[in-house]
Amino acid sequence: MLFIGGRQTQWPALERALGELGIADGVLYADGMNQALIYLENREEPVPSVVLLTIDGDDALEALKILKADERLGQTPVVVLANSNDERLVNESFARGGAGYMVEPGDIGEFARAIRIVRDYWSLSELP
User: Fold this and answer.
1) How many other CB atoms sit within 10 Å of the CB of residue 66?
2) DSSP-derived 3-state class of residue 110
3) How far apart are CA 114 and CA 17, in angstroms?
4) Residue 110 CB: number of other CB atoms within 10 A?
């Protein structure tokens, strides 16, 4: 699982919460889309089973478009995490190939549980 974006100050708390849930292993963190694309374009690195993309505006939606257009990464599910349920962002996320859209819970424990649900769902889903 690759987590893109978010506030770096939250990462230690998120890692701790995911560790308590037993799912911290295999979660990679990228500070923005540029860092994520460097990782994802490295052919020696495994393709993540799911990408969690934090959006704060149209730049992240463009990043989603780039991910879905890549022949190696295009089939990887991308779940968009946002701080609002703005109808335009929801619709645009799905239009650009997002596999899901969720509003980030404010509490780090609730956020970790939501991430676990996303991970569990995609680990059970059949992919092309």
Assistant:
1) 14
2) helix
3) 11
4) 12
pLDDT digits (tens, 9 = 90+) for 26-76: 777 777 777 877 887 777 877 887 888 887 655 668 888 888 888 888 888
Q: Does residue 81 sit in helix, strand or coil? A: strand
51-55 and 28-30 strand pairing:
unpaired
Residue 68 tokens, joined: 């879905």
Q: Tell me, what's the pLDDT at 98?
A: 92
pLDDT in tens, 1-18: 666 666 665 677 777 777
**What tokens does 85 get?**
């349920």
Residue type, 81: L
Q: ∠ CA 114-116-83 to the nearest 5 degrees?
A: 30
Contacts with 45 (C-beta within 8 Å, 6 or more apart), sequence order: 39
Cα torsion at 18, 4, 37, 39 (round to 10°)? -20
- Residue 119 near residue 50, CB atoms below 8 Å: yes
Give, for 36, the enclosing helix (H) or strand (E): helix 33-41
